[in-house]
Amino acid sequence: MIVLIGYAVAMGCIFGVYILHGGNIGVILTALPFELITIFGGALGAFAVNNQPKVLKATLKLLPTALKGSKYTKERYLELLTLLYDILQKARKEGLMSIEKDVEEPHDSEIFKKYPVVGSDHHVVEFMTDYLRMMVSGNLNSHEIEALMDSEIETHHQETHAPIAALTRLAGALPAFGIVAAVLGVVNTMGSVGQPPAVLGGMIASALVGTFLGILLAYGVVEPLAGLLEQKTEEGSKEFQCIKTTLLASMQGYNPATAIEFGRKVLFSTERPSFLELESHVRGKK
Q1: What distance in Å separates the CA atoms of residue 261 and residue 278, rounded to the nearest whole number?
Q2: Cβ atoms of 213 and 39 closer than 8 Å
Q3: Which of 43, 165, 205, 276 is the most buried if burial means most Cβ atoms within 10 Å?
Q4: CA–CA separation, 163 and 51 (whole Å)
Q5: In whole angstroms, what is the distance from residue 87 CA to residue 218 CA?
C-alpha cells in the first residue's frame, strides 16, 4: 500500500504541477503510448540479453514482494529463537544424538511442528538442520562451521541480490533509451521540416516526451523499487545470521538461554524482541 501511495504522490506532484503551470497534458498523453513502447520495449529486450534465465525468473518472483509487508516481524523472530532454544535445550539435557531424528526429518519433528511459521520456511529449516547435523556428527569445530556458514550466507546474499542488481542496471539504462526515443522523434521532425511551425513544435514536444519518460521511469519508478527490494532481502540475510550466531554460541559452551540471547542481539532494533519478551515467550512455549 505504501508503495502505491508513494508512486501516486510522485506522479501526482509531477504532472499536477505541470498542469497548474499551464502545461498541455494532451501533448504528453498523445505521445505516451509510442514513447512507452519504444523505451520499455528496448529496455526489456536489453534486460533479457543482460541477464541469465535464472536471474530473470528470480526477478519476476521478487517483484510481487514489493507490494507485500515484510514477513520478518518480531513475532517471527520470537518463534525462531524459541525454536532454537527448544532444540538446544533438548540436546543439552538428552545429548546431541537425541535431536538426530528432529534434524533428519524436521517435517515430522514435534519440535518443528510447534513453530509452523518458521518450520514451513524451507530455506530456514534447511540452513538450521544442516548445521545441527554437523554439530551432531562432531567432525567440525566451531571455527570451521563458522567459516562454512559465512560462505553459505555470502552465496545466499549474492543470489538474492542478482535480481536487484539487474533492476538497478535497468534503471540506469532507461534515461538512455529515453534519449533514443527523443532522437528518433527529432529525426522524424527533421523529415517534416516543410510543415508549419505549429506542427513542427508539436512534433518536437512529442520527441522530448521520450527523454522525460526515460528519466521519470528510471528515478521515479524502477530505482526506488530496486532500493525497496534490496532492503527486504537484507532482512532475509539477517535471519540466517541470527541462526548462525545462536548455534555458534551453543557450540562454544553457552547454555541455550544465553545462546539465543546472542542471536537476539544480531537482529535489527525495529524487530528485535526485548530480553523480557523473549524470556516470556520461551516460558510460555515450555
Answers
A1: 9
A2: yes
A3: 43
A4: 9
A5: 48
How many percent of the chain have pLDDT more than 90? Answer: 44
pTM for the full predicted model: 0.82
Count of residues for the chain?
286
Higher pLDDT, 156 or 188: 156
Using the predicted structure, report yes or no on whether residue 159 has a pLDDT greater than 70: yes
Cell of 219: 528515478
Q: How far apart are CA 37 and CA 209, in angstroms?
A: 13
Nearest to 186 by CA among 58, 47, 35, 68: 35
pLDDT digits (tens, 9 = 90+) for 77-117: 999 999 999 999 998 888 888 888 888 888 888 888 899 98
The one-letter amino acid at 230: E
| Among the listed residues 86, 78, 79, the one whose alpha carbon sits nearest the alpha carbon of residue 250 | 86
Classify residue 228 by its DSSP letter.
H
Q: What is the number of H-type helices and E-type strands within the chain?
A: 13, 0
In angstroms, the Cα distances linking 79 to 66, 153, 175, 193, 283 are: 24, 21, 45, 70, 12
The candidate with the shortest Cα–Cα distance to 239, out of 114, 81, 107, 103, is 81
Residue 207 in this model has a pLDDT that exceeds 90: no
- Identify whether the C-beta of residue 192 lies closer than 8 Å to the C-beta of residue 177: no
DSSP state of 195: S
Distance CA 61, CA 58 (A): 5
Give the gyration radius of the chain's Cα atoms. 27
Cell of 221: 519508478
| Predicted confidence band of residue 149 (pLDDT cuts 50, 70, 90) | very high
d(CA 276, CA 185): 65
Which residue reads 510460555 in cell numbers? 284
Query: What pLDDT sits at residue 245?
Result: 94
What are the domain boundaries of the chain?
28-286
- Whole-angstrom distance, CA of residue 248 vs CA of residue 243: 9
